[in-house]
Amino acid sequence: MTPVQAIIAKELRSYFVSPVVYVVGAVFLLIVGLLAYLYIVFAGAQAIQLMQMQGTAQINLNDLVFRNLFSSVRFILLIILPILTMRLFAEERKLRTFEFLLTSPIGINEIVIGKFMSVFLVFLGLLGLTGLMPLVLALFCDFDWYPVLTGYLGLVLLGALFLSVGVLASALTENQIVAAFVSFGLLLVLWLLAGVGSLLGETAIGQAISYLSFMEHYDHLVRGLVDTKDLVYFFSGLALMLFLSHRVVDSSRWK
Amino acid sequence: MIEVQQITKRYGHHTAIDRVSFSVAKGEVLAFLGPNGAGKTTTMRILTCFMPATEGTARVAGFDCADQPLEVKRRIGYLPETPPVYLELTVTEYLQFVGRLRGLTGKTLTSSMQREIERLGLGTVQHRLIGNLSRGYRQRVGLAQALLHDPQVLILDEPTVGLDPKQIIEIRELIKNLAGSHSVILSTHILPEATAVCQRVVIISGGRIVAEDTPDQLSARLRQSEKISLTLKSPAADTDSRLKAVQGVQNVFASGIPGTFLLECELGRDAREEVARLAVTSGWGLLELKAISMTLEDVFLQLTRDETGLPQGAVVAAAEPTGQPA
Fold first, then answer.
1. Residue B160 near residue B190 (C-beta atoms within 8 A)
2. Residue A174: which residues within 8 A CB-CB, separation 6 or more?
3. Which CATH architecture has domain B220-322?
4. Chain A residues touching residue B90 (CB < 8 angstroms)
5. Mean pLDDT by 10 residues, chain B (326 residues)
6. Where in chain B do CATH 3.40.50.300 domains reside?
7. In this complex, is the C-beta atom of B148 within 8 Å of any C-beta atom belonging to chain A?
8. Chains A, B: CB pairs < 8 Å
9. B105 and A CB contact within 8 Å
10. Which fold has domain B2-214?
């Protein structure tokens, strides 16, 4: 077992002995399930309306259910993922195990990657459970799987980006609440950049600011558009956040 | 095994340690004595590569702490002030994690864990969550962690804190047994501990090394003479010279406090009776007369306390024989 694997195993163990994952997971699945139910009921209501007006009911589930759902889940992730990441480094500092970790014969990059991977796996698990919803839906009606899958790809990438921001925030402080709020704030700013960008319109600055927000990149994926530009955005954002986390952890040694 | 040369650590304007140099040979146990905030932990943190020194070099087993930290970290077992334990893990899970971080696998890992669990008497608690263990057990788990990969160098920051007297003796025995095959630095503010387990003592105060020697020599060298403190109500102008004339008295110092004198006498000779008689017959108004004995405790206190307010003679006596730290 490599040190990174050892850290992942230990962090997963820590996650699953604490109630946080269960509470966060339950709330996440409940809200996603509830939203899915609501969107499906709305779609059904629309189908009935169409039936009465036109005699046929050809509705697009991809538009009516999945696109709406993916847009909502984005917001739920923004709220709950900071709760998952807040403990990663903050707790180590609080319990004085930080010094132990940094005097172990492993690199800081291994620590950062191990911690990120552990919470990412937890997130993938939660996201995997929501996969039941399209599977069940597929039993009863037809829809196009391709945008659903790219939507999930979008969620995975978005989640990874959110988690890496959370890792950075957790590295900055020894207070978990502060860590959660810092990452929440950073993510909200990233979100609102899209608004600022569109306010500035089609100018170079406006476009640059819009690009920095995850909104348009995520929307492309939800619409079934896999563009290298968007993938580059997510991967470079992830790499930047993890690199900054590395620097923050390293710099704490100099204080 | 450990060589520290002129290391300085500054936090902004505050200098935590100032040009500290010392070395530890293979198999030697060195005690770091000093009051709180003297720079013990800072020195240890530099040696364990947790933080870099502002100036100077530290080498462990031939590797520079600044240039090859991974090599140094592989060879060090470190117990910080607070045992670095994860409360949500059991003792075995924790040791397993620690072992894996240090590259132990399979049978080596299992046997190392078994060895430390036995050595530190953790058998009965090995499947319990560390969060449910008492302070003493957590400290022992912390020690097990430091020893797990059988490192050449052990750095223990106050290893016996929080243990009961029986455990303290056990841990001291353990450290004594480690000597010879391991180099150990331990910090403590309990003096008998230093005397009991260490070959050499470094006394550090205000970020500087003020003395370095074996515990025995340290007190012996400081006690080159018997000392008497004498307080008089109305000393005369010639009190000094007449005291000096008493048989066995070598030196007389006037202390900072008016009327108080410090007398240095030949080793093994008690001049108190003579001095008392002289004081009474001369009508100086004898208020107090007492012998001053120097234990390691006094040495420590004198070396680490601010020099103001102490009898001058004592300071001279303490500072002179120790000389410059090697």
1. yes
2. A90, A93, A94
3. 2-Layer Sandwich (3.30)
4. none
5. 90 88 90 84 91 91 90 93 92 94 91 93 92 91 93 91 83 87 86 81 85 75 70 84 83 79 78 86 86 66 52 37 37
6. 2-214
7. no
8. 71
9. yes
10. Rossmann fold (3.40.50)
